[in-house]
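Take the subject:
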Amino acid sequence: MRLQSKRIIQLVSNDFEDLELWYPVLRLKEEGAIVHIVGEKAGEKYIGKYGVPIFSDYAFSDINPDDYDAILVPGGWSPDLLRRFDDVLSMVRTMNDQQKPIGQICHAGWVLISAKILSGKKVTSTPGIKDDMTNAGATWLDEPVVVDGNIVSSRRPPDLPDYMREFINVLG
């Protein structure tokens, strides 16, 4: 297993895009990674856009990003909620400063925008936030997956296989 003992933060809040959260979690576990679901509160039930629930392992405030190898931000409407937490933005900035992999798909770019880490980066996202990404200083590309250093970005659920292949390669 290529990712044996790698520790990954999977951020969560309500209205996440179900596939964009669950597919990465399951793929990473298949590769031997330890994935912690991290939300506003520990032990909280969060519901995806299509009704699939997930429970958080830890609260944002419980996490020291130095103890982790990567972070994933799900899509859906949850990024608009996630970016309102200073702890989330701090985690993302710390991961970026340490050049640890940051995965973002669909609307997840909103969190990276609020963390102010996209200037000069090449990224993709759902086309609906293309203007937000470029206004944050990024170069937006309409591709299934874009890797720029430690940032791995993707557009939408049909791109998940490409997204996770590249995320695993960067993390590995």
Notes: The chain has a mean pLDDT of 98. The first strand starts at residue 7 and ends at 11.
